[in-house]
Amino acid sequence: MVGSAAFVYDDSVLKYDFGSGHPFKITRVRMAMDRLADSFQELQIEPARSATRAEAELFHDPGYLDLVKRFSTAGAGLLDGGDTPAFKGCYEASLNVVGATLRAVELVLSGKYAHAASFAGGLHHAGRRNASGFCIMNDCAVALALLRRRFNKVAYLDLDAHHGDGVMYGFYSDPGVICVDVHQDGRTLFPGTGSYLEAGSGEAKGTKLNLPLPPGSADDVLVSMFGDLVVPFLEQARPDFFIVQCGADGLKGDPLAGLSFTQCGYLRVIEMLHEIAHRACLGRLVLVGGGGYNPGAVAECWAGEYMALSGKPPICGTKPSTSLPSVLRKAESVMSAIRESHPSFSG
Ligand SMILES: [Zn+2]
Ligand SMILES: [Zn+2]
C-alpha cells in the first residue's frame, strides 16, 4: 500500500546554519515537524541522507564545489556579494540539504509514497558556478537533473517571493524542464529577474512561465494566477514529476519581501498542484522549502502544506487576503500581458 506523504527530516539538515544573526533559519523545518507531531496522526517521518559529490556535480561545476570546500574548511569568507557567508562545514551541510531533497525524490520514485516533503531544501538561487541569496548548493536543480535522466518532462514550481533564478537559468534551454515561477516583480525585489517575457530559449521556448506580481499582491491574485494560467499551462504540459519550491516569504509581514499572501492562498495552490499531479503522473510530487523569514508563520504554513498532500488540509484559520484595487489592476494587466505574449497562450 502506497503511503500518502513522507516528511523527510533528521537533525543532519540543521547544520545548514549561517549563525544566529542571519535571517535564514533552517530550524523552521524542525518547527514544522514538531507542529505536525503534536496534532497530525498521519505524519510519516523518513530520515534524510547526505548527497554524494557526484550527485552535486549533476548540476554544479566541480571547480565551484572545490571552492565551497575550501571556504568550508576555512570557515570564513563570503560565497557571494554579501548575503551568503561561508561557515565551518558549509560544504557538508549543503550536501546534507541536497541529499534530503534527493531522498524525498527517491521515496516517491520507489513507489513507497505518492508524495514527499523536504522543507530543508528549496535553495533555488544557487547557480552552477555560484552561491547566491543564502543558497550554496541548489538541491532543486540537482533533483531536476537527476529526474531528467529518467523522464522526458519534469515540472518545477516556485512559490517563493523571490525569483528562482538558479533553477530557471540552469535549465533555460532544456525543453524537458517546465518551470513556473510566481514571485514579486523583480523591479522591486532581489534578484531582479523573472520578467514574463522570459519564456525559455531555443527548443525550450515556451516551457518557462514567469508570473511577476506587484508588491502587495494578496491571495486573490495568487489563486487567480494559478487557476487561470498555471493550471491550463500544466494540463497542457503533462509532466512526469513535480517539484514544488514552497518558499513562504510571500506571507504578509515577511521582513524581506512585500507580498500579502496568507496560508489560505498557499494551501489553495498546493491543492491545485496536488490534483494535477494525480491526473498527470500518479501524484508524483515533492515539496521543498525555501525562503520565509517569520519562522513561526513559515513553520505553520509548511505543516499545512504537508497536511494538504495527505489529503487533509487544515481548516484555514483566517480569511483569504484581498488585494487593494490598485494592486489588482496591475496584476490583471500582467495576466493579460502574459496571455498575449507567452508562446503557450498566444498560440
Ligand atoms: Zn525568497
Ligand atoms: Zn495525493
UniProtKB/TrEMBL annotation:
Keywords: Acetoin catabolism. Pathway: Ketone degradation; acetoin degradation. One of its GO terms (biological process) is acetoin catabolic process. Residues 22-304 form the Histone deacetylase domain. GO terms for molecular function: histone deacetylase activity. Pfam families: Hist_deacetyl. It comes from the Archaea. Gene3D superfamilies: Histone deacetylase domain (3.40.800.20). This is Acetoin utilization protein AcuC. It comes from Methanosuratincola subterraneus.
